[in-house]
Amino acid sequence: MSRLTVRIARGLCLAALFVLCGAPRAQELEPRSYSPSPVGTNFVIAGYAHVSGDVLTDPSLPISGVNARIDTFLLGYVRTFALAGRTASAGFVLPYVDANLNGLVIGAPREINRTGYGDLQMRFAINLFGNPAASPEVFAATPQSTSAGLSLTIQAPTGQYVPTRLVNIGNHRWAFKPEAGISQPWGDWFLEAAAGAWFFTPNHDFYNGHDRSQAPLVIVQLHGGYSFRPGLWLAVDMGYAQGGETSVNGVENGIEQGNLRGGVTLAVPLGRGWSTKFAYSRGFVTRAAGNYQIVSVALQYRWFDR
Length: 306
Known about the structure:
By secondary structure, this protein is mainly beta. It has helices at residues 3-11, 136-141, and strands spanning 41-53, 63-83, 86-105, 108-117, 121-129, 147-155, 175-186, 189-200, 203-206, 210-214, 217-229, 232-243, 246-248, 251-252, 257-271, 274-285, 292-304. It has two helices and 17 strands.
């Protein structure tokens, strides 16, 4: 394996962002989101995630005792490029969801099935400190160092939504998450931290014409891991979500989320340009539901501009 291949394999990570219907969308754990990459890198990602447990974190819904099984298939694309001398990236991911939920709806047992496209998610990120924009050859010859940056994730209301339903795949609103993150390597070890917040526009057509709004949801993540060899690494992930109180027609429900999640992520190289990632996470401290687990796998292909 050439020095170029080794250096790039150490710096690159799988770019998949798993978007799921409901609460998991806002509380995903994604290690190495701020690790540096060379400019002119293209990623195509195909993934699958299975969610089980109580995913409805909105107490304004007259639903209790929820047990959900959600299968999500996604396809995404990410590209890195130079912007004002810094490395930037832009990408999108589109999910297709097959969900089954059962619980008590207004005290009566019900089972709900939903199938369709979820909300489109787009992300822009830029590195502001360390590891300036570099070609793959220059990137491979440059030692790793501390890097920090900013990102903006946008969720567009493109998912399946029927206003006469209490539970939908799409949210029928825009959502924005500005975030700051830092990545610190120590030899074969790495540590990454990120903090941001989701901001939501109102849904003016919630359940037969009501207005539903949601307060900002603060997200903090911490990841630590070890690279066994180029492209093969294991990370331990922790994330905390606070806030997100909802209101319907201006009446607040008085309950905020306060959920602590943890998990592990394993990335494995498969061959030239190919890699895969396996991840598992679950709730450890949950408030306003959020007691669900996620098992996911993603396949990625990477190539460079010529």
